[in-house]
Structures are given as C-alpha cells and as structure tokens.
Amino acid sequence: MADNLPAKPDTSGANLPSTTHAGSDEPTPRAGWLGEALPASIGGFGVTWATMFRKVLTEEYPEEKRPTAPRYHGRHQLNRHPDGLEKCIGCELCAWACPADAILVEGGNNDDTPADAGGTGRFSPGERFGRVYQINYLRCIFCGLCIEACPTRALTMTNAYELADNNRADLIFTKEQLLAPLQQGMLAPPHAMVDGMEERDYYLGKVNGSTEEQRVSAAAQAANAADTAMTSEGGATR
Ligand code: SF4
Ligand code: SF4
C-alpha cells in the first residue's frame, strides 16, 4: 500500500540549484542585509520627499468652509408654497420610508372656520397639514429615502452639514427648525388659500405669492391667537 503513495516534496534545500556567475561555475556572492534593505528604504523616503513638495491640501475648517457637491445630502428642509402655506400634508409617508425610524409626524386638520368663530386656521392647501414634525439626527443616516417618498416635495435635503452638538436633545429638530424661512411675497400661516384657487392649483404652479385677502386672513388669525393666549393666561393666574 505505502509504495503507491506520492513522494513527499524535498524541503531540505540540499538539492536546490546553486546561483552562478554568467558563463562561470563559481557561485555568486550573496548581498548582505544592507544591500537588500537600503534600496527599499531609499525608495520609501522617495515617497516622503515627493509628497513634501506637493501642494498642501489641509482644509482650515471651521474657519474656511468648502462648498459641498451640489447633490450632497445634508440637513432637511420643509418647503413652502409661494404664498407661504406649507407643502407638508402630514401624510407620514416619509416616516414610513425611513429605515432608521428617525422621523415623527402627526397630522392635523386645516380649519377654514373664521378666526372670530374659533377657527384654528389653515397651514397648507387641502385637508391636512403636518401639525408635529421632528427629525432625530442621532438616528438619521442621510440616505434620502424620506425625500423620495414625499408626494408633495415638501421635504428636501439641503447642503448644510454642521449637525454636531454636545447633547442629545438638541439633535432632535422640530418643525419650526426645519421649516424653510419665508421668502419675499410669502405670508406666515395660518391663513386662507389664495381666493378662487383649489389645492391642485398650487401644484400646477398657478400661485405666485400671497394676496391682500390672505394678509387680512392672517391678521385675523394672529389677533385671535393673541386673544386666546391672553384668556388662557388670565385663567391660569386666577
Ligand atoms: S435621510 Fe434616511 S435616515 Fe434620514 S430621515 Fe430620511 S429616510 Fe430617515
Ligand atoms: S414631509 Fe412629505 S411625506 Fe412627510 S408627512 Fe409631509 S407631505 Fe408627507
């Protein structure tokens, strides 16, 4: 049986061919460790020397902030229509799409009852609006799935990336922090929709800014809110 086994390879080195000079039977003298290590070391320093003369790429952050790539996924923003009404309709699709469970949305009903009759007002075109909106930046991985899910383009991502803080609570952003600032021609909600316009007209680009009727509506809502606050303060101090 043992005669049929393959022969073991010879690892003793005894049968290795010897190195010779070309055209001679004399063995070649072996270079010492210095002869082998020195060229490698010089090669390594070559990289160092070449790098020393390259242009320095150090970024002086935070004194100098370099712009990001245009499509960089940074902090979120809740957008508005041209008259100032909010685009968010409180549908929660963004929250359901989020793989990190970082979004909390609670919808509310818009209320067209006149302010002096106790109406709480309108914040978006259509039936519902985002009453509570929070994004937890301790969880968010900036994947962008939420903005893909949003049916009204209410939620987008900006290029802002400075989101570090020294406590956890400040990294849960609220609706007030996420809402886009009012641009020229916009009016802070709650207020009525543009007279004669339907919800779909807002998405067809037919609304270009706030109107005089909306300014009256917003002023009435603000006065009503102030009255309500005074009444509740009076009740609390009694
Ligand atoms: S970017 Fe991704 S992780 Fe962050 S809130 Fe949106 S879906 Fe969630
Ligand atoms: S941000 Fe968009 S997806 Fe999220 S609740 Fe508002 S409308 Fe719906």
TrEMBL record:
Residues 218-229 have a biased composition (Low complexity). Keywords: 4Fe-4S, Cell membrane, Iron, Iron-sulfur, Membrane, Metal-binding, NAD, Oxidoreductase, Quinone, Repeat, Translocase, Ubiquinone. It catalyses: a quinone + NADH + 5 H(+)(in) = a quinol + NAD(+) + 4 H(+)(out). The keyword Iron-sulfur applies. GO terms for biological process: aerobic respiration. Its cofactor is [4Fe-4S] cluster. InterPro entries: 4Fe4S_Fe-S-bd, 4Fe4S_Fe_S_CS, NADH_quinone_OxRdtase_chainI. It is a peripheral membrane protein. It comes from the Bacteria. Residues 1-35, 215-238 are annotated as: Disordered. One of its GO terms (cellular component) is plasma membrane. [4Fe-4S] cluster 1 binds at residues 88, 91, 94, 150. It holds the Pfam family Fer4_7. NDH-1 shuttles electrons from NADH, via FMN and iron-sulfur (Fe-S) centers, to quinones in the respiratory chain. The immediate electron acceptor for the enzyme in this species is believed to be ubiquinone. Couples the redox reaction to proton translocation (for every two electrons transferred, four hydrogen ions are translocated across the cytoplasmic membrane), and thus conserves the redox energy in a proton gradient. NDH-1 is composed of 14 different subunits. Subunits NuoA, H, J, K, L, M, N constitute the membrane sector of the complex. This is NADH-quinone oxidoreductase subunit I. It comes from Candidatus Phosphoribacter hodrii. The lineage of its organism: Bacteria, Bacillati, Actinomycetota, Actinomycetes, Micrococcales.
